[in-house]
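Extended Data, record HD domain-containing protein
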Amino acid sequence: MSVNKLKTVAGISIPDSSIANQATELLLEHGTEFIYNHSLRVFLFSSLNGKRNQLKYDQELLYVSSVFHDLGLTQHYSSPDLRFEVDGANAARDFLKSHGLPKESLQLVWDTIALHTTIGIAEHKEPEVALMYSGVGLDVMGEGYEHLSEENRIEIISAFPRNDFKKNIIPTFFSGFEHKTETTFGNIKADVCAYMTPNFHRKNFCDCILHSPWND
């Protein structure tokens, strides 16, 4: 798999800095073509939402966040016991730290990736966090589809094809945490486990309360 060298898609410039290119190379090395296309679409959708809402944000940090946001699903970056979102966030933080970025930038990228599936919180944080959350929501669930012009949609999908996305994304998610399904407790990825695993038993918050060691 080779990197798509398009510089501009749907009026959005794709960062071409050393940091951006090195991040892309890691995605190409450790990810799949499916995850690569999804990640670049997420960046473009996020950027279009930022442009539409006239938000100020760091384009390079948004790009790096988009590139790393699903790398926690891959074997190279997956831990035995952390949420895949945290694995991706940790990997991006380590990568940017090696480039000498300030603590504030490291934390912003970490939050952007770690919270990208956290409904009800991510959309209220910094522009980078909220924008990538919106880009993921648009690509995965079609949230905000009505704001995407047909021209932009066609151009983005032509550059970064969906490749039967609806059919393939759920198994792709599951493959990244089927060895640690307990990490889906309290988050939307428990739905993926229930879909992929017959008789999957979800951990229940109320059971945790009622069976706690407290004697009241």
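Summary. The two ends are 59 Å apart (CA to CA).
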